[in-house]
Amino acid sequence: MAYKRILTIQDISCVGQCSMTVALPILSACGHETCILPTALLSTHTGGFGKPVVVHMGDALEGMWRHWKENGITFDAILTGYLGSVSAVELVSELSDQLLSPNGILIVDPAMADHGKLYSGFDEHYAQEMKKLCLRADVMMPNVTEACLLTGTPYRDSFTEAEYLQLIRALGCKAGIVLKPKTPAEAAIPYLEKCDMILVMTVEPGFGGQKFMADQMDKIRQLKEWLDDVNPDCLIEVDGGVDANTCAQCKEAGADVLVAGSAYFKATDRAAFVKTIQA
Length: 279
What we know:
By secondary structure, this protein is of the alpha/beta class. It has helices at 20-29, 60-70, 86-99, 124-136, 144-151, 161-170, 217-230, 246-253, 262-266, 270-278, and strands at residues 5-13, 33-42, 54-56, 75-80, 100-108, 113-114, 117-118, 139-140, 176-179, 197-201, 235-239, 257-259. Helix 2 (60-70) packs parallel to helix 3.
């Protein structure tokens, strides 16, 4: 299987488990060639250590990515985090146009606010520029505060499930809910018309390698029956214990999307495994 080349663009916090120091080892451990474009160097992360020393990379960023372009370097995915300045946000927009491979994906974490307020050093202008970048993204990962800023929704400490779905839709994204094994199908009834996907867990969430819970198939059949009446475009996803044997049960019950973790990574021939799941 060919390695994917991923570029992550965010700050490096010398102390603190966040940003580049987390993204780089995780993406590399997943088997990807992980490249970095650091937007700033911080003595610590911004929570709990007082005011950190910050060195912005500034004009060097453009020189770096233009050097890559001269060498024909492209990326299968670009993942952004804390960018730190409007100029860096604008740079990501241009860079992604030039260096993202065909069918590549842009993943944006706005990383600009939390607990109802913008991070220190950011203002409404930064938020608006980040909104433009998010609209270009294939995947965005805002927290609740950032989602409110991006959609013009007044921030509150809590929202109802229906309001969360509405907020996600307001971002221009597809919305879904998850049902754990002990959660009955009836719990989804108020949200059937508001969802683009319903995920049915066939193991208890928390760790891989658990035994597939075949008793969840009745839940899938019930959801499928209801959705056919009120929201036939909504997909049913199944995650947990899916393998070459259990996938048939899921599809027979009405599942549209299957997620396989342990079975995929343990497969001798992963490409053949995927074809079996898709058949």
